[in-house]
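FAQ

Q: What does a record look like?
A: Structure on top, sequence underneath. For example:
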């Protein structure tokens, strides 16, 4: 009996990794109901990290990215000893309507609230997935929730939004929740950017979150100024550490206050789920993501998984679905990359029809290879 692993990442703006996996699974079941299937949604560390790692969930009320109360899930592993906090659940870009996206008015406060909630449950380890954020606040919101005070020139506490970072003149860490210092914290990231500068958080990711060109230098300067204050308070400097620019500077924030360890999000998933053992036994690997282009070959989750699969099992066949693929110099390590978008579809139509298109493409592939 053939063994298949179905392990897609999310299809941005249309399907979560869990939804994509289920659609592919249903298509394969229709043709080959008796085959051995393993469903393993994967993630780079952003959206879908919890779905990749566990089904044990708890929900908490926190402030969303624009300050309204929302429900956000946290995942748990190891009998509740490890918490998986996904930034996108509390401060994600997908939680903000497109016309309201502006890092001046978004906050990471809800992430700090999630951390507080899991500290109250006496977890030993926190995996913090940084990706898909709506924020560019240097973690000001999250750190405020955890007890740090950011003060303006009048020595008064500033607010919790991106714009408030611009007025910070001093930092008071006296009331930082000390419990966070005794926890193992892993930051799962999918970027290597430093905190500031032309390759930092504001310049590279600010525009896609709604930051205007005129504000890029203003935020970058604020990052440099406030990080200097935090560096002095905590006697460390992670501003140039790869990943410190993740999630609008939240990577830097948790490195600084808790000496968090930075790992590639995919590596966290691969190691936690012990995927090597599963791949060795498989005949086929089915993966995918919204767009496969040259950037995918710099270590995005589907590429990383395909590469590892070929290393542990050279005979495995690897098929990847994608909304749109660019012209690529090589398919390796993929056996085939399958575009699901119809030639006549606009982007809007393709996003709307993603479910049907993926099912149809998976059905055709099943009939062809099994």
């Amino acid at each position: 009996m053939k063994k298949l692993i179905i392990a897609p990442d999310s299809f941005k703006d249309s399907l979560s990794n869990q939804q994509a996996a289920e659609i592919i699974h249903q298509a394969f079941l229709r043709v080959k109901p008796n085959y051995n299937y393993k469903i393993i949604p994967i993630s780079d560390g952003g959206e879908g990290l919890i779905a990749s790692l566990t089904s044990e969930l708890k929900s908490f009320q926190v402030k969303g990215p624009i300050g309204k109360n929302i429900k956000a899930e946290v995942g748990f592993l190891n009998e509740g000893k490890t918490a998986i906090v996904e930034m996108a659940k509390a401060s994600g870009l997908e939680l903000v309507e497109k016309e309201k996206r502006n890092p001046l008015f978004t906050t990471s406060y809800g992430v700090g609230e999630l951390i507080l909630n899991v500290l109250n449950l006496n977890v030993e380890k926190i995996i913090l997935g940084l990706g898909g954020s709506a924020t560019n606040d240097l973690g000001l919101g999250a750190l405020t929730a955890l007890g740090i005070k950011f003060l303006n020139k009048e020595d008064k506490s500033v607010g919790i939004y991106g714009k408030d970072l611009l007025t910070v003149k001093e930092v008071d860490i006296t009331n930082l929740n000390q419990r966070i210092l005794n926890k193992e914290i892993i930051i799962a990231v999918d970027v290597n950017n430093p905190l500031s500068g032309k390759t930092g958080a504001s310049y590279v990711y600010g525009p896609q979150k709604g930051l205007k060109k005129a504000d890029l230098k203003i935020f970058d300067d604020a990052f440099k100024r406030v990080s200097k204050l935090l560096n002095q308070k905590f006697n460390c400097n992670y501003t140039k550490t790869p990943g410190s620019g993740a999630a609008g500077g939240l990577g830097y924030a948790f490195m600084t206050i808790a000496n968090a360890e930075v790992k590639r999000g995919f590596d966290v998933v691969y190691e936690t789920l012990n995927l090597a053992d599963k791949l060795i036994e498989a005949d086929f690997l089915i993966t995918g993501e919204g767009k496969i282009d040259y950037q995918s070959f710099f270590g995005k989750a589907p590429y990383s998984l395909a590469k590892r699969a070929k290393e542990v099992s050279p005979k495995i066949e690897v098929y990847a679905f994608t909304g749109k693929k660019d012209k690529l110099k090589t398919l390796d390590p993929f056996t085939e990359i399958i575009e699901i978008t119809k030639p006549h579809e606009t982007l809007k139509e393709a996003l709307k029809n993603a479910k049907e298109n993926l099912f149809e493409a998976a059905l055709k592939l099943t009939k062809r290879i099994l």
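Q: Is there anything notable about this one?
A: The CA atoms of residues 141 and 319 lie 41 Å apart.
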